[in-house]
Amino acid sequence: VCPECGILSVARPDTWLHLFSVFVQLPSHCSPDPDIFRYQELDKILSWAEKYPCAHSLWFGGFLGFLNIYHPEYAKSRLSATIQKGLNCVFPFLGKGLVVLHGPKWFQHRRLLTPAFHNDILKSYVSLMADSSKVMLDKWEKRITKDKSLDIFEDVCLMTLDSLLKCTFSYHSNCQNRSTTLPTAIHDLTAMIQQRIKTFLYHNDLIYWFSPHGRRFRNTFVCTIETLTMLKLVGLLRGMAFWADISAETDTLMFGGHDTTGTGISWLLYCLALHPEHQQRCREEIKEILGDRETIQWNDLSNMPYITMCIKESLRLYPPVPQMYRQLNQPVTFFDGRTLPEGLLVSLHVYALHRNPTVWKDPEVFDPLRFSQDNLSDQHSFAFLPFSAGPRNCIAQQFAMTEMKVSLALTLLRFELSPDLNNPPNEVVQLLLRSTTGIHLHLKKLS
């Protein structure tokens, strides 16, 4: 363990994980300030990605070691493996649902859930998504002032929660206009899960549940029970044989269906606020599509090429799930011949992959044209992974893209967005890509 910061150790050839020091040269020191790694983790990872363009090993506390990968070919090898174990430390929150299942059980759940996200089903969701977006925009219209910005993050997540309940559970919750603790509770839970992943001793259930952090997690989880219980028996999941399966997949849908999408929409609005030229071009595209209509329709979504490019570029810079952990259930061999054994913990760092300078030209620049048809042929199929890839890709990615298009279109028709330069976001990984300072935007009502 680094004697100065006590958080991150360097390569240690005397340990059983000697393969790490052979696999890739590691950083030779840690920062003397523990807060540097704790609160500027993403900057650290990007600096290492620039120095070690494929992968590096990482230690927490000298006990928990894993390989951090952020190269398309490495990602391809890792994601092409169909048998991978999830982390036990997320089971208490998501149960044994799609995110953490593996093997035949995962395949059964995936097969049963896939028809629920077919295009024929999604068509009927567009009007429901639009209704939820309009409720949010009506709230903003009443709250905006000339000199004060709004923190949009919680409102956006409430909107996606409202939309999810309407679309997948046929439940009109009115959660945007009444008090609910669910979004806050889920935000707290994701932060605590990230803390548990990075604390080696907390991977032991007995130690964790008797620790102050474990007790806090349990108490916070209680806040979600009332809403989740209402959703346990849904027609979408009647193919599940056991109550535990229904419960787990409901919890997974509740988390993956609103919090990740809400995060993605919030960062998307922030990106367009920073770049008014792209914002205006998106607005003109929407107006041209709608003409005299005020309602978004399913067929409109396929006629939004520039909006689609802006969404993808936002997801590149700010992927809602910036890091994905898996424990290998079989050996993996990478394109350069290096091999990882069964049982090793591997992290696919999507945030670093999307900003890897060996993969993307000027990676910090917001450039939607990266995703134009002319440039897609030059893009590695595993260079852009906001929804993962391979057999375990996000089952609801089309649902998320639909909701992002609908909410963005309606927002830009009503408001002009600009950033609050006095309250910039502070990016941090809390299972999802959060901002510890919120996402503050100035909103100007358009005539």
UniProtKB/TrEMBL annotation:
Residues the entry annotates as binding heme: 394
Q: Carries keyword Glycosyltransferase?
A: no
One GO molecular-function entry: iron ion binding
Which protein family is named in the record?
Belongs to the cytochrome P450 family.
Q: What cofactor does this one take? A: heme
PROSITE patterns cross-referenced by the UniProt entry: CYTOCHROME_P450
Q: Which Pfam families does the record associate with it?
A: p450 (PF00067)
State what protein this is by name.
Uncharacterized protein
Q: Which PANTHER family match?
A: CYTOCHROME P450 FAMILY 4 (PTHR24291), CYTOCHROME P450, FAMILY 4, SUBFAMILY B, POLYPEPTIDE 7 (PTHR24291:SF201)
Q: Which UniProt keywords apply?
A: Heme, Iron, Metal-binding, Monooxygenase, Oxidoreductase
Q: Which residues form a coiled coil?
A: none
